[in-house]
Every structure is written in structure tokens, then in C-alpha cells.
Amino acid sequence: MDSLTKTIPIWCAVINYAVSEYRRRKNILHIEPWDAHFHSLPSITPPTENAQIEALIPQFAQKLLDCETVDVGAVAAMLKKPLRAIWIAPDTRYFMNIIEDSHGVLSNHKYRHIKTSFCNDYDSLAFYPVVCLNASRVVNDGSVRHENGFYYVQGAADDHEMWGMGLTPDLFWQHEARFLDVSITNEDCQRIITELLSKETQSINENDHHFGGEIGCSSTLFDWIGQTGIAIGKPPHCWDHFDVVINCGAPEYLQMSELSKTPAGKQKYLYLNITEGKRGQYALYDSIPTVLQFLVAINNNKNDVVGQQKILVHCAQGIFHSHSAMFVYLINEFSCTGKDRSVAITLAILIQFLQDDFSLKYDLKSVKNSVTKKSIQNLLIFIQKYRHVVRNFQSIAKP
Predict the structure, then answer these.
(1) Domain that holds residue 223
(2) N or C: which end of the chain has fewer CB within 10 A?
(3) Are 180 and 241 part of one and the same domain?
(4) 206-223 tens-digit pLDDT
């Protein structure tokens, strides 16, 4: 709930304020009024808390402006109107009920047209609406039986990665009729998911033509991280287009496991036995030196520069679920539950080898001036710029 009522509107206010400040510093005029207030739901956030959060917006915006990997100028050029969160829930009866006006902005005569025109033409609004949709409703005992035989359990959608068995939104909507059939049992549902995931894996294995591309391009299955020569992805066959593959605990495919038995293959492929869960977190941490030494060894054994080669960091997880990457270097400062090991490994590589000009120098003796929370945050944002499924930095990347 906090993400919808606080985090998202905080980010809207921070971006709006940062854009306004950027334009002021660059003497760029923007259309007035430019609303950079923090807008929350008065029914959820009391006025005192709203005021406390609003007082923090300028310093949050300054951090965003100071972040070297965020192009605020590009955002400023893109936004013609400020952002503003609005809320829709099951008990919303009329669209305007979701806009609670904590600053009296809608009382201004300039905004009176909103009430009559929003549903017909949102372009007439003085802001870009960021719709926060909450499909849940509060019930007294946390569980209630619906007429169609399903139970509604408050909070059941949380941590879907734990119970979703790998089902993706795309797969669900492609086969929604099968999943929404009221006659299927839990066992049927699990069987359908297993069947669909198996077919998807087989399709990936049989369609190698989906992969490839030059540095700077992205496929739907892997993404280049800028011009570093490093890509993050999860399909088994895309390694055919890479010089080096680091497998972060994904299944050991026969092709690669056989390759790793040859001297030449050992310089192309590294398998990290990182399991799921708590043990996997510690295995991830312990794997970092192995990865760094592996890349340095390749560099020492070749005449060409590893930084010019194409490196795939590969794992079965496609989403950066939490702040696992911070766990790699700041384990004593953060409690981490992240799953995307490929992002964590990529972050470690960039921390150790990335130079100021964004080239890679594979040398363990090269000591960085400092590794700080801010520098790691900047690198995470740099990765996310290219690997768009990376998400939910929480305490690392939030303002």
C-alpha cells in the first residue's frame, strides 16, 4: 500500500521538482504553473506526515540531479507537464473520487475544467496522470468468499515470485481462459503452468534466430549494458553470439557443460552453482572473487582485450526482485533477498573493472578511489537504463 500512496507520489514530486530546478539552472522556460508539490491521499496520509514528506522533496530532487547516470535533461525535454499520481480502487464509483486535493490545486479556476473533461480527454489536464490501480479491498477478517467460489485473501498477491512457479503476465494473458476456468483445481493450475513453461523453453531452444545483434542493440531475451560489451539475459542459445558466458546458477545446459570440459571451453564458460534462497545469497557473495579472477585470467591468456569481447552474464531469473546486488559488497549493512544473480554479478564486474570513460580494464590490481553506497547506486541505475526488467531497488535507489 505504501508503494501506491507514498513511494509513487514521492517519485512524481521528486521528478517534477528536479525538472523544474534543472530548467531554472539552464534558464529554460516551462509552462506555468509547474506543480512540484507532493500529492498524497488525505484519507491515507495525515496532513502532518504529508508536510514532513514534502519538506524532503527538494533534497531528494538534488540527489537525483547529482546522479551521474541519470539524464535529467532528457527527462526535462520529454515532460511537457508535471507528473501526478491518481488512484483507482474497487470502491471507486466516479473517476473524480480518486483525485483528493491536498493542496487546493483543483480549486484554482485554471483546473475547473478537469472535472468535466478528464474522462473525455486527459490531454486537457495540467499534469500527466500516473494511475495507481489497487485491485484489492479491505475486509474485516482478511479473507472472504466470493459468489464464484474463489476466496479473496488480503495481501495474497505479495511476493508473487515465491508462488507463481515462473508464470509471466504474458503467458497468463495468452491462456487466460484456461486459468480462469472455475472448474480447475490447484493441481490443474500447477500442471498448466508447468506445461506452458516447458513449451516456452522448447520454443526458445528451437528458435535460435531470435538472438543476436550488435552491441548497442537489444533483443527481447538479453540486453547490452551500454558499450561495455557485457549483456544480461536468460535464454540458453544466445551464448552462441558471445565470446564469454558466465552462468549464474541457471540450469547446466548440455552444450555448455560439455564445452567446459575442454581447455578452450574453460576460457569461454564459467558456471556458478548459486542456488535459490538464503544459501544462494551467500553463494552469490562467495562467487564474486571467482568471477573477477576468471575474467582477469582470460585477459592474461589472450593477446586481444577482453573488454572488446562480448560477455553474457546469464541466469534463469529475469527480474531484479530486490537489492541483492548491494549484498555483494555491503552484506554487513543491508539485509538482502534478491534473486537476479546476473545483475549482482554484472554489478560486481563493473565496480571492479569499469573505468571513468566506461571502458573495462580487467586488472585486479587496479584500485578504485572508493566504493560507496552512492557509487553503487549510480551503477545500478546505469544497469537499469539498459536492462529494463531490473526493478525495485527499494532502499538502494529510492530517494
Answers:
(1) 213-386
(2) N
(3) no
(4) 544 333 334 434 455 678
- Cis ω before 46 (30° cut-off from 0): no
Task: Count other Cβ atoms within 10 Å, centred on residue 294.
Answer: 19
Residue 320 is given by DSSP the state B
Q: Which three cell numbers stand for residue 281?
A: 545469497
Residues 23 and 63 in one domain: yes
Name the β-bridge partners of 314: 233, 247
Distance set, CA 210 to CA 8, 96, 115, 377, 390 (Å): 35, 45, 48, 32, 21
Do 202 and 228 share a domain, yes or no?
no
CA angle, 1 then 141 then 91, to 5°? 50
If asked whether residues 126 and 269 sit together in one domain, one would say no
Ranges of beta strands (E only) in 197-281 are 222-224, 230-233, 244-247, 269-271
What is the tens place of the pLDDT at every residue in 65-94?
A: 988 778 899 999 999 999 999 887 766 654
Q: Are residues 347 and 232 in the same domain?
A: yes
Domain count within the chain: 3
- Comparing CA positions, the residue from 179, 181, 176 lying closest to residue 189 is 179
Q: Rounded mean pLDDT of the chain?
A: 72
Is the Cβ–Cβ distance between 246 and 294 less than 8 Å? yes
Contact 117, 128 (CB under 8 A): no
- In the sheet that holds 311-314, the strands lie side by side as 222-224, 230-233, 311-314, 244-247, 269-271
Phi, psi of 270 (to 5 degrees): -130, 125
Would you say 20 and 72 are in contact if contact means Cβ atoms under 8 Å apart?
Answer: no
Q: Which three cell numbers stand for residue 264?
A: 578452450
188 and 225 assigned to the same domain: no
- 290-313 tens-digit pLDDT: 988 898 888 776 654 444 678 888
Give the pLDDT confidence of 24-50 residue by residue, as tens digits. Answer: 999 887 766 899 999 988 888 899 999
Report whether pLDDT(318) > 50: no
Quick one: which of 333, 328, 301, 302 has its CA closest to 313?
328
